[in-house]
Amino acid sequence: MNLSAYKMDGLGNDFIIIDQRLKNIELTQKQIIKICDRNYIGCDQLILIKKNRKIDAGLEFYNSDGSISGACGNGTRCVADLLAKENNKKEITLWTSGGILKSKILDHNSVETEIGAAKTNWDEIPLSKNLNTKNLNIKIIDKNNNKHIGGTAINVGNPHIIFFVNEIENFDLKKIGPEIENHVLFPEKCNVTLAKVINKNLIKVKVWERGAGLTKACGTAACATAVAGNINKLIEKKVDIEFSLGKLSIEIDKNGSIHMKGPVSNIKKITIEI
After folding, report:
1. 207-235: per-residue pLDDT in tens?
2. Please, what are the domains in the chain?
3. pTM exceeding the 0.85 threshold for the entire prediction
């Protein structure tokens, strides 16, 4: 059976998008893993567009290991751009399991999405026990065997931990990432970000995504990093988060709602054989 789909990315964080509004085709976990496998087609996440009678559409996100993801910031921005072009609209509203997300289509393939307010209570992350989420006192070790203790936990539709470090490349995130993702404190696992504050308006990051591994960018990680930076009084309410291929602009408004703005790729139509 052949499926029509789309391939898009936000700063290299890439997605395969399947529109199921007209015909719902159930995909097995094995099929999802195959589609996401870079030896086949490959992507960080698979996104299913679902019919919604009240708003533009609903979204389901799947990581490359076949697990469900509650939120995907860059993926939401990509789908918003896709549906906006389809319907000649400038604003798109999408349902996700993490909440209703509104997006504005800007110039030059740029999309801004309002993520909503972050959750910072221990049981909202969730953690396995009551701890101060500002500093979990988790130890990570760099390539020179130096210890770093810290970690701020944030939930922006999915759980994140952010370590503010002096030099990101001093750490082997490919090794640290899965260790922290599966840490006993995170019953639902977590996304892991190493962040270096350049100044009050710029942070460089590197991300290990839960269920996907190292990714070139992650929208919710950018949002979580901005919130963590504010909690730790390291940055302003408006900050650029820099990945290897570019930046996402994050702003936390007076109500605590997070706005994420950045580029999306052109839309590529593909066919998937399953």
Report:
1. 999 999 999 999 999 999 999 999 999 99
2. 2-115+262-273 (3.10.310.10), 138-260 (3.10.310.10)
3. yes
Mean pLDDT of the 160-185 span: 98
**Residue whose structure tokens are 């399953």:** 274
For the segment 40-47, the average pLDDT, to the nearest whole number, is: 97
Longest dimension (CA), the chain: 55
Check residue 68 and give its pLDDT.
93
Contact yes or no for 215/224 (Cβ under 8 A) = no
Q: Is 147 exposed, middle or buried (0-12, 13-18, 19+ CB in 10 A)?
A: exposed
Task: Give the Cβ contact number of residue 60 at 10 Å.
Answer: 18
Distance (Å, rounded) from C-alpha 263 to C-alpha 32?
26
Catalytic residues: 72, 218
Phi-psi category of residue 136: left, alpha or beta, with phi > 0 → left and psi -120 to 50 → alpha: alpha
Distance CA(260)–CA(77), nearest Å, equals 9
Provide the 10 A C-beta neighbour count for residue 134.
Answer: 14
